[in-house]
Design a protein that fits this description.
Length: 362
């Protein structure tokens, strides 16, 4: 584009800067990974919500970085924020930037480095990616917590309409839709799984591409290499069906609101075991995160046993933290049937439970 050197405005933008102040910050230590503090803003005729996560789990999704017996490497814990579009968008696309930094109200400390994220909001995408503001363990010594209060400066910039009529825009990826339809239609399926009285047709090459365990079964010289029928023991049909759907679509709707909360927790427990069995690291991490956000008196002991059996050290730590947070909680958990199961199936974890209780002096 050529112009004569004078100022040229090609877009318009609406910007709002506000301070998100969190008093009594020490109380956020009791918040789970999926819990947040929210603040509502009205900008450019839209209702927005800033969500502040004091304990956000950021998972490493590159499977080459994951080691099945070293769960300490699968995530890091951050102070993070997300931007949510609460109202319906007034145009097809809202291009928005969220910028956040920690500030000191007394100004004795310079603001932290600003962290930003940009996102295109529409009717089908109302949540931005997270802004990873600071590693959680670095925050207490950073100097930004003053008198048990933390202040975050948030800047939201909403870009005006762009003239893109002459620019072709590629449609979003529909790969998961097509693979899901392939699974449902069974076209070209070359293996049938028999699970708890039900049968599921699938494609060996897709299973092998997603799971090293299936790859070894079908292309590694094992007995199932040429078999068209495989019997799966010790798994419910509904769990295998959900796992198969995840392999094809990378989605687990049963964990994302399709089921009632209690049923979703039970499904997450079974899916975690299935994911560990077949080396589906991403599904295992999703289940671990789901379970960590829903630990209560009734599920703490059984979830702790599950975490111990399937090498989920982070979920295990969350369970220990919950059980030992007060004498009343510990007594309530010890009285559950789940604790009896824990004693019978994972007796060695009782030493760690006792150590955690001693460290917290309950």
């Amino acid at each position: 584009m050529e112009h004569d050197g004078t100022n040229l405005t090609v877009t318009e933008a609406v910007r709002s800067v506000q301070l998100l102040k969190i008093d009594g910050y020490c109380a956020t230590a009791a918040m789970e990974a999926l819990e947040f503090i929210k603040s509502r803003w009205n900008i450019d005729g839209h209702e927005w919500e800033i969500r502040f996560y004091p304990d956000h789990w950021h998972f490493f999704e590159d499977e080459e970085m994951l080691f099945p017996f070293d769960d300490k490497l699968d995530h890091s814990e951050w102070v993070a924020l997300k931007l949510i579009l609460v109202s319906e968008p007034q145009r097809d696309k809202l291009r928005v930037n969220l910028s956040c930094r920690l500030v000191c109200p007394s100004q004795h400390l310079d603001p932290s480095q600003a962290k930003t994220v940009s996102h295109v909001f529409n009717r089908h995408s109302k949540c931005s990616p997270e802004v990873l503001l600071m590693l959680k363990h670095k925050l207490p010594s950073s100097g930004y917590i003053v008198n048990d209060s933390l202040t975050v400066e948030c800047t939201i910039t909403v870009l005006g309409d762009l003239d893109t009529a002459d620019e072709p825009v590629p449609p979003p990826s529909d790969l998961r839709q097509h693979l899901g339809e392939l699974l449902e239609s069974q076209d070209g399926a070359d293996v049938i799984f028999h699970v708890s009285g039900e049968s599921f047709a699938a494609h060996k090459v897709i299973l092998a591409a997603r799971s090293l365990v299936f790859k070894a079964k079908f292309f590694g010289g094992m007995e199932e290499t040429s078999s068209e029928h495989v019997v799966i023991e010790d798994m419910e049909a509904a769990v295998f069906k959900s796992m198969l759907h995840f392999i094809y679509t990378d989605m687990a709707p049963e964990l994302d609101g399709e089921l009632e909360p209690q049923a979703a927790v039970i499904m997450a427990q079974h899916l975690l075991a299935a994911a560990d069995r077949y080396g589906l690291n991403r599904l295992k991490l999703i289940c671990e995160c789901k379970l960590s956000g829903g630990i209560d008196i009734g599920t703490a002991a059984t979830t702790l046993a599950l975490a111990e059996q399937h090498h989920c050290s982070l979920l295990k730590a969350k369970c220990l933290e919950f059980v030992t947070k007060s004498p009343e909680t510990l007594d309530a958990v010890l009285a559950t049937d789940g604790y009896a199961h824990l004693v019978a199936s994972c007796p060695l974890v009782l030493t760690e439970l006792l150590r955690a209780a001693c460290e917290r002096k309950i």
